Amino acid sequence: MIDDKQTNKKPPICFFVIEPKYFLGIVIREAEKKGTIVPYASPRCRVFEGTSGSTGISLALVARALGYEAEIVLPDDTAVEKSQLIENMGATIVKVRPVSISNRSHYVNVARDRAQRFIEDGGKGLFVDQFENQMNWLTHYETTGPEIWQQSRGKVDYFVAGAGTGGTIAGVGKFLKSVASDVQLILADPPGSGLFNKVKHGVMFSKTEIEGKRRRHQIDTVRPQKKNSTLMKHSFHDPESSGMIDHPPFSLIPLDANRWSRGSGRID
Hints:
Blueprint: H1 4-7, E1 14-17, H2 22-34, E2 46-50, H3 54-66, E3 69-75, H4 80-88, E4 92-96, H5 107-120, E5 125-127, H6 134-151, E6 158-161, H7 167-179, E7 184-189, H8 194-201, H9 230-233, E8 251-254, H10 257-261
Parallel strand pairs: 1-6, 2-3, 2-5, 3-4, 6-7
Antiparallel strand pairs: 7-8
Helix pairs in contact: 2-6, 3-4, 6-7
């Protein structure tokens, strides 16, 4: 190990961020300005979203605080702890089987369809659409990024984040690159995820996501993980072989923030 004191080099400043959900409140407030939804109406207006869990928890909390009903569509293999949290905050849960995003039964598509039907039936509703909503990455560009830069006093060498929609790393990364071009952006991505192939080869694909092959509870943010647990051993697929691998649940991939924020919050 190299001793930084001996080399007279300062240790790098690295930020690892757990994704905040600022944009949810902003999306709701913007919809209020347009008259799409009205807080504390009778009957209550409703916000819809398709999510694997974390956004659903945040939306249930934000919606209740701002005077709305929330309807969350989840894949049925979501950890029961997440479902319980969402229900405990007063949201309605709809569970669907895990399928490809191209399938009309995918949880995002179901949430969109349910929101549309609700509106067509005379209700006031909003589909948050976190995967395509421009406010996702833009909110992190305008808030999270500047906060990190200010609180670190402009001393950031690396920014590390996970990715669901990609909004956090896109927005924060784009801001940090605008004020310090040498900042390195690192995506912590579970092995077997389709994002690796998207970044490296331009195709969002993972062998573990082939229909009929999807592994349930691959990596769950609620469940405590142990390196040698059965769950961990059977959660990762080595793309270079047909066997399973057992190592820490992330790969470090340098990213270009501009690719992520061009057109939508996802990688293009």
